[in-house]
Amino acid sequence: MNQIPRQASRKTPWTADEVALRFEEAATTGRRLPPVRVQGYFNTWPTIVRESWEAMRDDDRPVRFPPTPKEIDRMLEVMQWVHCLEVEDRKIVWMRAGRDRWKFIATRFGICVKTAQRRHERALVRVAAMLNGDLVVPVGRLCLTYMPQSGTILMYETRLQNPSFQPLDAQSRIDGRHPMQGNCRNADGLD
Description:
The protein is of the alpha+beta class. It has helices at residues 16-32, 52-55, 69-81, 87-97, 102-109, 113-132, 170-175, and strands at residues 2-5, 136-139, 142-147, 152-157, 177-178, 182-183.
């Protein structure tokens, strides 16, 4: 079992609004991180010292303050929460946390705006339920559960048993039939 460390556990249960605020904070922190640059290149020129009258028309970018280590830790914690969501729901949550418009999100996924809003709300409720320990979340072959006593998210691999699933055998592939679907030929009986 892998254990994902989490900060000190809370006394009050998580709500969807609090989870949304934490996602927005994480997206803001991610934007404030310094850009990734290729290692090995640097500038040997000295910094230009300008006169006061030259500095007035200076076109330098505004000063961006990097995030604190505590903010980065909180961002990394939030990034672990999305493991309980499907891939498209993760993208919707992160796009909305980055303050993208609902119309843009809906167009990107080929759904209407109301559907995007419902999926976003459902994803936030699912994360809040996982954090409150109310939900064991299966995602593919992984299963996640939050342990509020120790403040950790447990991840373990599982094989989901579906009694109605039967794999195709060689004869079924040749005949065009599946054991669960019957005959896969045309309705008029012609191949």
